[in-house]
Amino acid sequence: MSADKILFFLSVSLLIIGVVFSLSLSVFTVLSFNYSEYHFFIRQFIVALIGIAMMWGISRLNPDKFLIWIGFGLFISCTLIMGLMYVLPSSLVTEAGGARRWIRLPGFSLAPVEFFKIGFVYFLAWSFSRKIDNSKKRLVDELKILAPYLFLFMIIIYLIAVLQNDLGQVVVLALTLIIMALFAGTSKKFFGIGILAATLAAIIIIFSSDHRILRIKSWWGSIQDMILSFFPHQIADVLRVDNAPEPYQVGHSLNAIKHGEIFGEGLGAGVIKLGFLSEVHTDFVLAGIAEEVGFVGISVIVILFSFLLFRIFRISSRSENKVYHLFSLGIGLLISFSFLINSYGINSLVPIKGLAVPFLSYGGSSVLAVCISIGMVLMVSKKVKQ
User: Fold this and answer.
1) Least confident span in 283-287, 323-327, 329-333
2) Mean predicted confidence (pLDDT) in 43-66
3) Which is higher by pLDDT, 182 or 1?
4) What does the alpha-carbon distance between residue 220 and residue 138 come to, in Å, rounded to a whole number?
5) Phi and psi for 99 in degrees, rounded to 5?
6) Ramachandran region, residue 64 (left: φ > 0; alpha: ψ -120 to 50; beta: rest)
7) Residue spans of beta strands (DSSP E) within 72-171
8) Quick check: keyword DNA-binding in the entry (predicted)?
9) How many angstroms separate the CA atoms of 264 and 280, rounded?
């Protein structure tokens, strides 16, 4: 059987769009650091070519032999690397804002967490297929089965949210874990408890950091007038935040989207990238794209993502092997949540989490990781029922 060609070409199409906008949106950074005009374009182009080659090469492998090796290889190696990053010398680790997120290699840096997510999803798929079934169980029995996973996730929270100060990745992994557990056979009651526990954990993590508290206040200050208008005055006065810090980046993001209107300012003609949004080619890439190609261009991207996710979930639903089914589901969820949280964040619907947009954001780690994950799903697609 052959791999899903449509999924492959959808992925390549999104990568091409990301490469094009790495040239268009990086102009201010190029001028600020006196880089070559094509600095980011060439790097993203090379990474995209490597990613496409890896995606194609992995898709050619037999999942019965190689999926477990790739999945556990990523899970174990990236867990060890993330655990060791704080004892490695500064010559090997890139530090930003007090957090060590990147391993420095000759000519480039890699973020282990991007590859860890793939390994974690495979570990969950492999383990859930052995530990969880669809038989009816008491809630206490479900808690006993899932307690080791919750303990493991506490370690992950420490490694990623605490040591790397990256709550966004933890949110994506938590949502993915809960939904994968539901599809593996846990009850809806446990699903509800899982959502509640994840929410409480997120609140605790937020209130343990002054930086995160300020970010939440900034976000809430930008939307509170709209939300609190539906509440009685007594409740609204309690929930209102005075003197909230100005949501500088989100404000410019919304301006970029507004300027784009229906058809956009034109490719390369956007102005919000000229110093107003410093991360426009990375975290705010969708806002930059919206300004230059407008609602029509963003709609095309949403359609491409929708078809891509449809193909992934279709492969998952048609997989008779439970590991393949859960793994493909998990990869689809990772891509879905990353895209949704980022797109909601630039519209001020949720706080900004600093998540890369799969395929589109500038950055070698996110591009290579998503290509590896798609390659693994393509590998699985050769075994699904047609």
Assistant:
1) 283-287
2) 96
3) 182
4) 40
5) -110, 135
6) alpha
7) 93-96, 99-105, 108-110
8) no
9) 16
